[in-house]
Amino acid sequence: MNERLTALLNHPRTQAVLTWIRQWRKELAVVLAMLLTMIGPFLLKPAQSTAPARYDRRLVIISPHHDRIREEFGQAFAAHWKQSTGQTLFIDWRVPGGTSEIAMLIKSEASAAFQQHWQSKLKQAWSPAVAQACLNPKAAPEDAARQAYLASNLTTGMDVFFGGGAYDFEQQAKAGTLVAGDGEKTGISGLTKKHPEWFGENGIPEKLSGEPFRDPQGRWCGACLSSSGIVFNRDVLRRIGIADDPDAWEDLADPRYYGQIALSDPGKSGSVTKALEMLIQQQMQIAIDRLKAVPNAKLTPEELEAEGVAAGWNEGLRLILRISANARYFTDFSTKIPLEVARGDAGAGMCIDFYGRSAEEDVRKADGTSRVGFIAPLGGTSISVDPIGMLRGAPDPEIATAFIEFVLGEHGQKLWSFRVGEAGGPRQHALRRLPVRRDLYTPENIPRMSDGKEAPFEKAQAFTYHSERTGAAFNAIRFLVRVICVDSHDELHDAWKRIIDNGMPERAITVLEDLTRVKYEAATGNIAKILAARDKAQETRLARELGDAFRNQFIRAGTIARRGS
Q1: How far apart are CA 39 and CA 31, in angstroms?
Q2: Cα–Cα distance measured from residue 160 to residue 397, given in angstroms and rounded to the nearest whole number
Q3: Which residues of 381-396 are buried (b: 16+ CB within 10 A; e: fewer)?
Q4: Do the beta carbons of residue 339 and residue 359 sit within 8 Å?
Q5: Vertex 402: Cα angle to 398 and 403 (nearest 5)
Q6: What's the CA angle centered on 385, arms 383 and 389, to 5 degrees?
Q7: Single pTM value for the model
Q8: What letter does residue 447 receive in the DSSP assignment?
Q9: What pLDDT sits at residue 51?
Q10: 271, 352 in Cβ contact below 8 A?
Q11: Can you give the pLDDT at residue 40?
Q12: Which has the closest alpha carbon to 229: 51, 552, 454?
């Protein structure tokens, strides 16, 4: 056997092949890598597809929800539809990323559909002005492109938008990509007529503590409650010398948290931007309350409000700056934060409530204790909603409406909140969300909920959301945090480390936290104006100018700290 092998290896043809391989080994490696890239998805494809081998109807849902929610609601609604109609339903989930990516995809699909309609059916010439106007709620009322889009039933190929934040759904509703339905049988407008008891102060209120819970025109509605907070790992905190669990946003700015904070890029997630907006609003209210307590103050109510809002804006951004300086990274995926914290790779992070509560449950011991905790800072976050709505031109509006009805109905509300094993609850995963319908919080249901004692409708009274304070600056918050904290994170992180190592010199801190360029007046004025214009050239120019200025500022602060002067 050895002789045959030796003879084969010494054969001239074998030697020629080996010589060729040695000469072209780099090229072969590249070709092999390309082949693996192409066939990888097929090799890694699950043994069973999520689509049934045969189905009667298909429901297309675009969603940022994680796999546990998609799995529980997908299986439950498909079973419900089968039992009700005898039909096999395929739920086609589209998950392009967070709400920002979803917004871009919907806009792209809607614009493409309208371009085809405008040119082929209406026989009109396409232009950048038409493309800008068709989805623009600020377009002139008489604009032909805008009116043509709103009068159409053009489809994006998707039925339902499920999950995100109220702000994102408001923007889609204003653009016209979300619709109320026919007012009789389809959409939320049809459900309002069919189930009037679901909507109102005893069911789903239109607003709560300043937060919108549903669209007055029925284009979207909250599906469950949501709040932001702090997920933390007790073992990590004790190791770095922090004895107490965090309970306020300010705790994350403590220098002892340096390199231990996990954050998400607000440019990728509307929920993260919402959390930062709440942090700023809390600082605004603190500043206003402080001004009110000044004896013999000669400010009118309007002046007091304006001064407090401006001061709170600056203090909120300063707090975000310090928390970002403590951050070890900014991830594109908010779901990564609780996983990192649970593993001990980070001490704490900002996340949505159910992500934090799920992480706490996943590592809970038999005695009920857990190294992971979650806290929604009282007075530092509002109770808002995670909405659902039907998209314009839904391919199957009947099933789209049935799914929305299922989610808002008793069965769906129990899926959100009940523990695994409870009648009507989830099959495999406790979703740790809270019902949006007030009438579901009954003495019978609360003991069956994972978090029934949270009493969200009562806690909502501790924080009142004032849209007039930060509503116009929502996109500015997202933009500024990305430019100042995310894009310039290396310089910020390094400067903060030097400041900590050199005893927190005040001069260096003052330079680091100089926010003169982005005061409230600028954020709600010129910056907001540039962002609203949707002129990418202007926006890029502004981002570059601010980014360069703050990077140089952070470098200077670090130099001052190192020199001790």
Answers
A1: 12
A2: 9
A3: bbbbbbbbbbbbbbbb
A4: yes
A5: 120
A6: 170
A7: 0.76
A8: G
A9: 67
A10: yes
A11: 43
A12: 454
Residue type, 240: I
Name which of 326, 379, 321 is nearest 517 in CA terms: 321
Read off the tokens for 302.
């309007």
Q: How far is CA 1 from CA 4, 50, 524, in A?
A: 5, 50, 82
Q: Which regions in the chain score pLDDT beneath 70?
A: 1-12, 14-51, 565
DSSP 8-state secondary structure symbol assigned to residue 419: P
Which residue, among 323, 345, 315, 167, has the nearest Cα to 246 in the 3D structure? 323
Phi, psi torsion values for 94, nearest 5 degrees: -115, 120
Distance CA 1, CA 286 (A): 86
Query: Cα–Cα distance between 275 and 349 in angstroms, integer?
Result: 12
Count other C-beta atoms under 10 Å from residue 129's C-beta.
11
What is the model's pLDDT at position 539? 93
Q: Domains of the chain by range and CATH?
A: 2-43 (no CATH), 57-95+155-226+384-454 (3.40.190.10), 228-381+465-563 (3.40.190.10)
With CA atoms as reference, report the closest residue to 399 among 185, 217, 93. Answer: 185
Tokens of 96: 């392009």
481 vs 93: CA distance, rounded Å: 31
Q: What is the pLDDT of residues 180-239, one digit of tens each?
A: 999 899 999 999 999 999 999 899 999 998 899 999 999 999 999 988 899 999 999 999
